Protein backbone atom coordinates (compact mmCIF):
# COMPACT_ATOMS: atom_id res chain seq x y z
CA UNK A 1 0.00 0.00 0.00
CA UNK A 2 1.32 3.44 -1.06
CA UNK A 3 2.10 5.83 1.71
CA UNK A 4 1.64 9.53 0.94
CA UNK A 5 4.40 11.82 2.11
CA UNK A 6 3.14 15.27 3.04
CA UNK A 7 5.43 18.23 2.34
CA UNK A 8 7.21 19.59 5.36
CA UNK A 9 6.94 23.18 6.49
CA UNK A 10 10.42 23.88 5.13
CA UNK A 11 9.46 22.51 1.72
CA UNK A 12 6.36 24.70 1.62
CA UNK A 13 8.39 27.77 2.53
CA UNK A 14 10.92 27.07 -0.23
CA UNK A 15 8.12 26.51 -2.75
CA UNK A 16 6.45 29.76 -1.66
CA UNK A 17 9.70 31.70 -2.07
CA UNK A 18 10.22 30.20 -5.53
CA UNK A 19 6.68 31.18 -6.56
CA UNK A 20 7.19 34.72 -5.31
CA UNK A 21 10.43 34.92 -7.29
CA UNK A 22 8.66 33.82 -10.48
CA UNK A 23 5.88 36.38 -9.92
CA UNK A 24 8.44 39.11 -9.25
CA UNK A 25 10.37 38.26 -12.41
CA UNK A 26 7.19 38.28 -14.47
CA UNK A 27 6.16 41.63 -13.03
CA UNK A 28 9.63 43.02 -13.62
CA UNK A 29 9.60 41.82 -17.22
CA UNK A 30 6.19 43.36 -17.85
CA UNK A 31 7.31 46.65 -16.31
CA UNK A 32 10.52 46.70 -18.36
CA UNK A 33 8.58 45.92 -21.55
CA UNK A 34 6.06 48.69 -20.86
CA UNK A 35 8.72 51.26 -20.06
CA UNK A 36 10.77 50.24 -23.11
CA UNK A 37 7.74 50.67 -25.39
CA UNK A 38 7.09 54.13 -23.96
CA UNK A 39 10.71 55.16 -24.43
CA UNK A 40 10.65 53.86 -28.02
CA UNK A 41 7.48 55.77 -28.85
CA UNK A 42 8.92 58.96 -27.34
CA UNK A 43 12.17 58.52 -29.28
CA UNK A 44 10.29 57.94 -32.55
CA UNK A 45 8.04 60.95 -32.01
CA UNK A 46 11.02 63.19 -31.24
CA UNK A 47 12.96 61.93 -34.26
CA UNK A 48 10.00 62.39 -36.60
CA UNK A 49 9.49 65.92 -35.32
CA UNK A 50 13.14 66.85 -35.82
CA UNK A 51 13.19 65.18 -39.25
CA UNK A 52 10.04 66.99 -40.43
CA UNK A 53 11.91 69.66 -42.46
CA UNK A 54 13.61 66.86 -44.40
CA UNK A 55 10.31 65.20 -45.28
CA UNK A 56 9.05 68.11 -47.38
CA UNK A 57 9.49 67.89 -51.14
CA UNK A 58 11.71 70.98 -51.20
CA UNK A 59 14.18 69.85 -48.53
CA UNK A 60 17.82 70.69 -49.05
CA UNK A 61 20.51 68.02 -49.12
CA UNK A 62 21.67 69.19 -45.70
CA UNK A 63 18.16 68.95 -44.23
CA UNK A 64 17.70 65.51 -45.75
CA UNK A 65 21.00 64.29 -44.29
CA UNK A 66 20.03 65.62 -40.87
CA UNK A 67 16.64 63.92 -41.09
CA UNK A 68 18.26 60.63 -42.07
CA UNK A 69 20.54 60.89 -39.06
CA UNK A 70 17.65 61.55 -36.69
CA UNK A 71 15.59 58.60 -37.91
CA UNK A 72 18.53 56.21 -38.02
CA UNK A 73 19.51 57.10 -34.47
CA UNK A 74 16.00 56.36 -33.21
CA UNK A 75 15.89 53.03 -35.04
CA UNK A 76 19.35 52.07 -33.78
CA UNK A 77 18.24 52.70 -30.20
CA UNK A 78 14.84 51.03 -30.63
CA UNK A 79 14.90 48.76 -33.71
CA UNK A 80 11.55 47.09 -33.06
CA UNK A 81 9.38 49.31 -30.90
CA UNK A 82 5.81 50.35 -31.74
CA UNK A 83 6.00 52.85 -34.56
CA UNK A 84 9.30 51.49 -35.92
CA UNK A 85 7.65 50.64 -39.25
CA UNK A 86 6.57 54.24 -39.84
CA UNK A 87 10.01 55.58 -38.95
CA UNK A 88 11.70 53.01 -41.21
CA UNK A 89 9.35 53.88 -44.07
CA UNK A 90 10.14 57.60 -43.79
CA UNK A 91 13.85 56.77 -43.58
CA UNK A 92 13.54 54.77 -46.79
CA UNK A 93 11.84 57.71 -48.51
CA UNK A 94 14.64 60.07 -47.49
CA UNK A 95 17.29 57.59 -48.61
CA UNK A 96 15.51 57.19 -51.96
CA UNK A 97 15.34 60.96 -52.45
CA UNK A 98 19.08 61.07 -51.75
CA UNK A 99 19.56 58.36 -54.43
CA UNK A 100 20.91 55.99 -51.77
CA UNK A 101 18.97 53.09 -53.18
CA UNK A 102 20.54 50.17 -51.33
CA UNK A 103 20.04 51.94 -47.99
CA UNK A 104 16.45 52.80 -48.97
CA UNK A 105 15.79 49.11 -49.65
CA UNK A 106 17.16 48.21 -46.25
CA UNK A 107 14.86 50.71 -44.54
CA UNK A 108 11.80 49.61 -46.50
CA UNK A 109 12.55 45.95 -45.91
CA UNK A 110 12.71 46.76 -42.21
CA UNK A 111 9.39 48.60 -42.38
CA UNK A 112 7.70 45.65 -44.10
CA UNK A 113 9.19 43.19 -41.60
CA UNK A 114 7.98 45.17 -38.59
CA UNK A 115 4.38 44.07 -38.98
CA UNK A 116 3.44 47.38 -40.59
CA UNK A 117 -0.20 48.13 -41.45
CA UNK A 118 -1.16 46.83 -44.88
CA UNK A 119 -0.97 50.21 -46.62
CA UNK A 120 2.48 50.95 -45.22
CA UNK A 121 3.70 47.46 -46.10
CA UNK A 122 2.42 47.86 -49.68
CA UNK A 123 4.15 51.23 -50.04
CA UNK A 124 7.37 49.82 -48.60
CA UNK A 125 7.40 46.82 -50.93
CA UNK A 126 6.61 49.07 -53.86
CA UNK A 127 9.47 51.33 -52.81
CA UNK A 128 11.87 48.39 -52.94
CA UNK A 129 10.78 47.73 -56.53
CA UNK A 130 11.40 51.35 -57.48
CA UNK A 131 14.92 51.25 -56.06
CA UNK A 132 15.79 48.32 -58.33
CA UNK A 133 14.26 50.15 -61.29
CA UNK A 134 16.22 53.29 -60.44
CA UNK A 135 19.40 51.18 -60.45
CA UNK A 136 18.33 49.72 -63.82
CA UNK A 137 18.32 46.23 -62.41
CA UNK A 138 15.10 45.42 -64.20
CA UNK A 139 14.88 41.66 -63.51
CA UNK A 140 15.06 42.35 -59.77
CA UNK A 141 12.57 45.18 -60.16
CA UNK A 142 10.17 42.74 -61.86
CA UNK A 143 10.53 40.30 -58.97
CA UNK A 144 10.01 43.08 -56.42
CA UNK A 145 6.86 44.35 -58.15
CA UNK A 146 5.48 40.81 -58.13
CA UNK A 147 6.13 40.57 -54.39
CA UNK A 148 4.49 43.95 -53.82
CA UNK A 149 1.40 42.78 -55.73
CA UNK A 150 1.07 39.57 -53.72
CA UNK A 151 -2.34 39.41 -52.07
CA UNK A 152 -3.59 42.61 -53.74
CA UNK A 153 -6.51 43.01 -56.11
CA UNK A 154 -7.80 45.71 -58.47
CA UNK A 155 -9.74 47.44 -55.69
CA UNK A 156 -6.77 47.66 -53.34
CA UNK A 157 -4.74 50.75 -52.67
CA UNK A 158 -1.72 51.21 -54.96
CA UNK A 159 -2.63 48.22 -57.13
CA UNK A 160 -2.85 50.28 -60.32
CA UNK A 161 0.58 51.85 -59.78
CA UNK A 162 2.18 48.51 -59.00
CA UNK A 163 0.77 46.54 -61.91
CA UNK A 164 1.72 49.25 -64.40
CA UNK A 165 5.17 49.31 -62.78
CA UNK A 166 5.39 45.56 -63.28
CA UNK A 167 4.53 45.86 -66.97
CA UNK A 168 6.99 48.72 -67.44
CA UNK A 169 9.91 46.86 -65.85
CA UNK A 170 9.06 43.69 -67.77
CA UNK A 171 9.38 45.78 -70.92
CA UNK A 172 12.69 47.20 -69.78
CA UNK A 173 13.93 43.71 -68.86
CA UNK A 174 13.15 42.51 -72.39
CA UNK A 175 10.29 40.30 -71.20
CA UNK A 176 7.96 41.35 -74.02
CA UNK A 177 5.42 38.53 -73.77
CA UNK A 178 5.14 38.96 -70.00
CA UNK A 179 4.74 42.73 -70.36
CA UNK A 180 1.93 42.27 -72.88
CA UNK A 181 0.19 39.81 -70.54
CA UNK A 182 0.53 42.23 -67.62
CA UNK A 183 -0.83 45.20 -69.58
CA UNK A 184 -3.73 43.11 -70.91
CA UNK A 185 -4.48 42.03 -67.36
CA UNK A 186 -4.41 45.66 -66.23
CA UNK A 187 -6.69 46.63 -69.12
CA UNK A 188 -9.25 44.05 -68.05
CA UNK A 189 -9.04 44.78 -64.32
CA UNK A 190 -8.84 48.57 -64.39
CA UNK A 191 -11.73 49.44 -66.70
CA UNK A 192 -12.34 52.76 -64.92
CA UNK A 193 -8.70 53.78 -64.65
CA UNK A 194 -7.62 57.23 -65.83
CA UNK A 195 -4.49 55.55 -67.17
CA UNK A 196 -6.27 53.35 -69.73
CA UNK A 197 -4.84 55.37 -72.63
CA UNK A 198 -1.35 54.87 -71.23
CA UNK A 199 -1.88 51.11 -70.94
CA UNK A 200 -3.30 50.90 -74.48
CA UNK A 201 -0.38 52.91 -75.81
CA UNK A 202 2.10 50.51 -74.21
CA UNK A 203 0.28 47.53 -75.73
CA UNK A 204 0.29 49.20 -79.15
CA UNK A 205 4.02 49.94 -78.83
CA UNK A 206 4.58 46.26 -78.09
CA UNK A 207 2.59 45.26 -81.16
CA UNK A 208 -0.35 43.83 -79.24
Overview of this protein structure:
This protein has 208 residues and is mainly α. It folds into 2 domains: 91 residues, Alpha Horseshoe (Serine Threonine Protein Phosphatase 5, Tetratricopeptide repeat); 91 residues, Serine Threonine Protein Phosphatase 5, Tetratricopeptide repeat (Alpha Horseshoe), CATH 1.25.40. Helix content is 74%, strand content 0%. It has 9 helices and no strands. It is globular.
What's the arrangement of secondary structure elements?
Layout (H helix, E strand, L loop, with lengths): L8 H43 L9 H17 L6 H14 L3 H13 L4 H17 L3 H12 L9 H14 L3 H14 L6 H10 L3
Helix pairs in contact: 1-2, 2-3, 3-4, 3-5, 4-5, 5-6, 6-7, 7-8, 8-9
At the fold tier of CATH, the topology name of the largest domain is Serine Threonine Protein Phosphatase 5, Tetratricopeptide repeat
Average pLDDT confidence is: 83
CATH architecture of the largest domain: Alpha Horseshoe
Could you spell the SSE succession in H and E letters? Answer: HHHHHHHHH
Low-pLDDT segments: 26-33
Q: Helical content, roughly?
A: over 70%
Q: Cα distance, first to last residue?
A: 91 Å
What structural class should be given to the helix and strand makeup? Answer: mainly alpha
Number of strands: 0
C-alpha Rg (nearest Å): 26 Å
* Structural domains: how many: 2
Shape: globular
How many alpha or pi helices? 9
| CATH class placement of the largest domain | Mainly Alpha
Biggest sheet: strands, sense, closure?
A: none
The percentage of residues in β strands lies in under 5%
Amino acid sequence: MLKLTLPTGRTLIIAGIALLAVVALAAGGWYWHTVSRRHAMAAYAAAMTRAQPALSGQASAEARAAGIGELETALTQYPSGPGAAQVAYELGSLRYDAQQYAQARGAWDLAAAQGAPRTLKTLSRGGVAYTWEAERNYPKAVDAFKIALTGLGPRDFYYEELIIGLGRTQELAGQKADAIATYQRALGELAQSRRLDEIKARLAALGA
